[in-house]
Write a structure and sequence with these properties.
Layout lengths: L5 H6 L3 H53 L5 H43 L20 E9 L5 E10 L4 E6 L5 H8 L7 E6 L2 E2 L5 H6 L1 E4 L10 H6 L7 H10 L3 H4 L24 H15 L3 E5 L7 H15 L3 E5 L11 E6 L2 E6 L1 H7 L2 H9 L19
Parallel strand pairs: 3-8, 3-9, 6-7, 7-8
Antiparallel strand pairs: 1-2, 1-4, 4-5, 9-10
Helix pairs in contact: 2-3, 7-9, 11-12
Length: 395
């Protein structure tokens, strides 16, 4: 944990503190290891004594019987050999049992993971989703995480085919939850979500997500080549289609300069675990190219350009606008300027729609959206007590 967050440790000058945590963890581990070694050694001593007693008693008994003429020399040799064999088997069983107890915690964790019930299942006789126009409709949808605070409260929203909407609101307003419910990462508690009249709870999950392209703010790539990551969006795409998508996402140029320690370069270079060998902006451009290659009829953008500098963001915004053509789009952004040009803006507060309209009409109304816009255009959060520090945290 400290190693993967080494920059944070150094930033707060907690090197000695983390070293103390490491020493404490190591001492606890050594204490457990010593206890295990003492236990194993005790079993080994007892097992060895019992084995020697078995061998001695077997040899003594057979020799006594031989002197009496009850058994022959062959029987004495066979009995002694069997006792020695049992000694070897008992040692093997003891070490195997020791190994089992050593790894039983890991095995138990694995069993608990594998036996955990799947939370979201396809409905019986679920059919594949067929998207024609791309209309999305929320009907009286309510949802809460863990049955505690309500995040979405009887929300009704219709997104027309090909319409591009932006979701706006303070932190915790329910923007990302709406996207997660649409993808059916969670099931709604009441109400329905329909795509072209088909309830997402009644279609297969794979077919639902195959019709949706999404770019998130926390982009994670597979520990594979750039090519594999791009083709994850559409595995039957040709190299020409893949490169065209990378060019539209302003990624082709930097991909050509990539190399890895094994001498692979360009699209064959590996990006490391979760894409750590790329910068945040590079990872996001690869993710955008992947979604462009997928070319799904419904597009979800959750801070799609948050990790990009202004120059690259402007270029990719143009590409995204081209990508949006003919698609139903739901976008979330911290910077309101990036979604101000959407067909319609939906302003959320405490899981409910409090305002909706285009950018100009919402500014003229002077409500929550206008205040958020003013804060991002140069105002200060301290100017209005009711608009606390969460006002700028829109995701």
């Amino acid at each position: 944990d400290a190693y993967t967050n080494i920059a944070t440790v150094k930033l707060f000058s907690h090197g000695q503190r983390e070293a103390g945590f490491a020493r404490g963890a190591m001492q606890e581990f050594l204490h457990t290891a010593y206890r295990q070694m003492r236990l194993v050694s005790g079993f080994e001593i007892v097992n060895h004594l019992l084995s020697m007693l078995l061998i001695a008693s077997t040899a003594g008994a057979t020799l006594w019987l031989w002197t009496r003429g009850a058994v022959g020399v062959g029987a004495v040799a066979a009995a002694t050999a069997m006792a020695l064999r049992l000694n070897g088997i008992s040692h093997w069983i003891m070490w195997e049992m020791s190994s089992l107890f050593e790894h039983i915690g890991t095995v138990q964790d694995g069993i608990n993971t594998l036996s955990r019930a799947v939370a979201i299942k396809d409905a019986p006789q679920a059919q594949p989703l067929k998207v024609g126009r791309g209309e999305v409709r929320f009907e009286q949808v309510s949802f809460s995480y863990g049955g505690t605070r309500t995040v979405i409260d009887e929300l009704s929203l219709t997104i027309r085919p090909g319409e591009k909407i932006g979701l706006v609101g303070r932190s915790g307003a329910g923007k990302s939850t709406i996207v997660n419910l649409l993808l059916r990462f969670y099931d709604v508690e009441s109400g329905r979500i329909l795509i072209d009249g088909q309830d997402v709870a009644q279609v297969t999950q794979d077919s639902l997500r195959a019709q949706v392209g999404m770019v998130t703010q926390d982009t994670s790539l597979l520990h594979r080549s750039v090519r594999d990551n791009l083709l994850y969006g559409r595995n039957d795409a040709s190299d020409a289609q893949m490169i065209a998508a990378a060019e539209r996402a302003e990624a082709h140029e930097f991909i050509q300069t990539l190399t890895d320690p094994k001498g692979r370069s360009g699209y064959d270079a590996h990006v490391g675990e979760r894409g750590v060998k790329l910068s945040g902006g590079q990872r996001q451009r690869v993710a955008i190219a992947r979604v462009m290659l997928k070319d799904a009829p419904i597009l979800l953008l959750d801070e799609a350009t948050s990790a990009l500098d202004s120059e690259v963001e402007a270029a990719i915004q143009r590409s995204l606008y081209r990508l949006m053509e003919g698609k139903t789009v739901v976008a979330i952004a911290h910077r309101l300027s990036t979604i101000a040009a959407m067909d319609r803006l939906i302003v959320l507060d405490k899981g409910r729609i409090v305002e909706e309209g285009d950018h100009a009409s919402l500014l003229a109304r002077g409500g929550l959206y206008a205040r958020l816009w003013a804060h991002q255009s140069g105002g200060f959060l301290g100017e209005e007590a009711e608009d606390d520090e969460t006002a700028l945290s829109l995701g």
